[in-house]
Amino acid sequence: MVELDTIAAVIFAVALLHTFCAPLFLKAAHRSKRHGGLLHLLGEVEVVFGFWAGVLLIAMALAATSGQALRYAETRNYTEPAFVFVVMVIAASLPVLTAVMRCVEGLARLLPVPPATAKAWLCLSAVPLAGSLITEPAAMTIAALMLGPQVFHRGMPERLKYVAIGVLFVNISVGGTLTSYAAPPVLMVASTWGWDSAFMFQAFGWKAALAVFVNATAATLLLRPHLRAPDVMGRGQQSPRVSPVVIAVHLAFLVAVVLAAHHPIVFLGLFLFFLGYTQAYPASQNRLIIKEALLVGFFLAGLVVLGGMQQWWLQPIVSGLQPVALFFGALGLTAITDNAALTYLGSLIEGISDASKYMLVAGAVAGGGLTVIANAPNPAGVALLRGAFQNGAVGMGGLLLGALAPTAVAAAALFLL
Questions:
Q1: Hey, which residues does 237 pair with through a beta bridge?
Q2: Residue 118, Cβ density class (10 Å: 0-12 exposed, 13-18 middle, ≥19 buried)
Q3: CB under 8 Å to 17, separation ≥6 — which residues?
Q4: Contact call for residues 340 and 378 (beta carbons, < 8 A)
Q5: Residue 50 sits in which domain range?
Q6: Same domain membership, residue 86 and residue 66
Q7: How big is the CA angle at 179 (ends 306 and 363), to the nearest 5 degrees?
Q8: What is the distance between the alpha carbons of residues 392 and 388, in angstroms, rounded to a whole number?
Q9: pLDDT tens, residue by residue, 5-35
């Protein structure tokens, strides 16, 4: 089994390297006529971990048996990838976006700044914090689609786009900590450690909210000269009039799916009813983002398969660190592995102190914006916003640089306050 563990670690490292090199594949795809399609596929960040998960299963079948590889794949928990797929599609529907946009417009009128500035600030602050109620993947989807036409347009300098996406990813990661069910890394430990929403708000929530407001304010000040008037919604289309009844039904579907987040049979059944409803009232709908959501689900499922074989080297690191070292260790490790997987490993440690519990989760959520794999909703943001970046790809180096400053603010708030 040691041999399989080593093979899995090597493949995981290659997959991680592949995510950073994805823009290079896209550049090569533009130059190659014969293999452009394959290179473009390998340049899609959402495909990377699914592709290498397949390589891992083939390697397991060759090194052990095909039955062992099949059993491993079938015993993974794919609830989160399935949930993210469903909630992305529903949250990105026109009625839901219309409802959120109306709320944002109402709040923007109360702020003593120009409408474009107010709406950009609210999308970078209030929407990520709303992720504590509607879950982080839903908040990411809504924020990305609302910010797209206003911030991620051709007139925005590339470096500021990376600032915006870095702040968005960090704020989504920490903004879900006001409750015990919305952030994947919190969800992994909440029941085991007895953390309810009251505890989360007292221990994490107000600190996270402060960091979110600081990050959003700083980013909005930088973006303000290049903000575009938010006169469009979604993917660059004029927003038609949507029936209040249809909005209410879509919001009911979203709430029901969030409440059933741990029960895939239930939320997948609700999703099928949702698809039927959208067909019944096409005049109040836009194009459902089925393709984008499927790619994100594929990415997360690949991460589940690859991440399940990394426990042998991750858990000794997590269990061997003192609280302060654990905070910074989790902050760094989150960049190269999903933060929910990291906190799950911590939940398996017997006798872990309360201080270590806090530091592990605080470091994991603070580092959730550093890379595309650091937090489950990040691939959704990449899938929806990548077209605004050069070569149609979000560079992992640029994302890391853009997220450094907001990560430092989040880390300071959670560590010092």
A1: 233
A2: buried
A3: none
A4: no
A5: 2-74
A6: no
A7: 50
A8: 6
A9: 889 989 989 988 888 887 788 778 877 777 7
Question: H-type helices in 156-205, by residue range?
Answer: 158-175, 184-193, 197-200
The span from the CA of 183 to the CA of 138, in Å, is 11
pTM: 0.88
Q: How far apart are CA 237 and CA 199, in angstroms?
A: 42
CA torsion sign for 188, 189, 192, 195 is negative
Average pLDDT, whole number, for the chain? 90
Q: In whole angstroms, what is the distance from residue 288 CA to residue 111 CA? A: 33
- DSSP output for 234-269: TTTBPPPP--HHHHHHHHHHHHHHHHTTT-HHHHHH
Is 114 in the same domain as 154?
A: yes
For the range 276-284, what are the long-range contacts, defined as Cβ-Cβ under 8 Å and sequence gap of 24 or more? Answer: 277/249, 277/253, 278/93, 281/243, 281/246, 283/240, 284/94, 284/95, 284/240, 284/242, 284/243, 284/246
Cα(373)–Cα(375) distance, integer angstroms: 6
- pLDDT per residue as tens digits for the range 191-240: 889 999 999 999 999 999 999 999 999 999 999 999 987 654 444 444 55
Handedness of CA 35, 37, 40, 45 (dihedral sign): negative
Per DSSP, the three-state class of 415 is helix
115: number of Cβ within 10 Å = 16
- At 234 the pLDDT is 46
Shared domain for 214 and 67, answered yes or no, is no
Task: Give 122-132 pLDDT, tens digit per residue.
Answer: 999 999 999 99
**180 alpha-carbon distance from chain centroid:** 17
Q: If 0-12 CB within 10 Å is exposed, 13-18 middle and 19+ buried, where does residue 379 land?
A: buried
Q: How many domains does the chain have?
A: 2
Select from 20, 51, 74 the last residue of a domain. 74
Domain stops at, among 74, 100, 135:
74
Q: Which two tokens stand for residue 282?
A: 């096409």
Residues with Cβ < 8 Å from 307, sequence gap 6 or more? 12, 337, 338, 341
- Where helices occur in 224-366 by DSSP H, the ranges are 244-259, 264-280, 290-307, 311-319, 323-333, 339-347, 354-366
Residue 92, burial from CB neighbour count under 10 angstroms (0-12, 13-18, 19+): buried
Contact 306, 14 (CB under 8 A): no
